[in-house]
Write a structure and sequence with these properties.
Strand content: 15-25%
Distance between the termini: 13 Å
Radius of gyration: 19 Å
Structural class: alpha/beta
Shape: globular
Number of strands: 11
Helix content: 10-25%
Length: 270
């Protein structure tokens, strides 16, 4: 089996949606377009979480030309060690954390996130690790891509401020904003998918509270694609993924960030 493998935490009773979830869907769809044998394997997944993934893909992307649903499958965690894999792609540290003692694959492709979660030669004799951040243990330098060619056009965009302060429940920092932003309707990031999300705000606020080391934030690039104004506050000077992604957007925008068949990771599977 060739697969994009993604561990689904059921918190508390249904799968949480994170940027890593979106990454897994996008790389799966891109590979599937050119190799219909690829599977998106939801480890620990349920039919409810599978349907959530399908609904999310249809809400965010133009996918009417892809018959992608039947290749999204659920696999019990305890059966992973008995599942034969030819090629596997893993894009998040949580999947590494939950599978490094049980996953075996002839070829294992990893897009790195955090340095403290690693596969080794016991998982695969052909392990290839890609990464763009300076702290990552990697074999190849790599710019993470996104499925911009399939992003849906926005219809009507509401005036609003999307607020993201990872792992932080103290929103007193909003009092430090200028009056215009204080009065703007707020949309707060949550661990669930918000349908037509990018139609519900026109400005994005990222406040780094030093409560989470953010490895691969997507929203800087997505908001740049949709032309939204970005406000980035990092008063602690933490050089995590948010720092590097924000500054990369300032310097390069979304140049070389479009995921397609020419991507080096994708070409391992087509």
């Amino acid at each position: 089996m060739n697969a994009v493998l993604f561990y689904t935490f059921q918190i508390p009773v249904e799968m949480a949606i994170t940027g890593s979830t979106i990454n897994a869907i996008e790389y799966y769809l891109t590979i599937f377009e050119h190799n219909s044998d690829i599977k998106l394997v939801l480890l620990n997944g349920t039919e409810k979480s599978r349907q959530k993934i399908i609904g999310l893909a249809k809400n965010r992307y133009y996918v009417d030309d892809l018959d992608f649903e039947s290749n999204i499958i659920c696999l019990e965690w305890r059966k992973l060690i008995r599942q034969g894999f030819e090629r596997v792609l893993v894009l998040d540290y949580s999947t590494i954390q939950m599978t490094r003692d049980t996953l075996l694959s002839d070829t294992l492709i990893v897009i790195q996130e955090k340095e403290d979660y690693q596969y080794d030669s016991l998982n695969s004799k052909n392990l290839i690790r890609y990464g763009e951040m300076p702290w990552q243990i990697k074999d190849k330098e790599y710019r993470m891509k996104m499925l911009f060619d399939r992003f849906k056009k926005l219809r009507h965009v509401e005036s609003g401020l999307y607020v993201n302060s990872p792992k932080n429940s103290d929103y007193s920092f909003l009092n430090k904003l200028n009056l215009r932003l204080k009065l703007k309707p707020k949309v707060f990031k949550a661990r669930r998918h918000l349908d037509n999300m990018f139609e519900q705000f026109d400005e994005y606020l990222y406040w780094h509270a030093n409560t989470w080391f953010d490895p691969h934030p997507r929203l800087f690039a997505e908001c740049t694609f949709y032309g939204k104004k970005i406000h980035y506050y990092n008063i602690h000077g933490i050089k995590d993924g948010s720092f590097y992604r924000y500054n990369d957007m300032l310097q390069n925008g979304i140049k070389d960030r479009t995921l397609n068949k020419n991507d080096e990771v994708v070409r391992n599977f087509i």
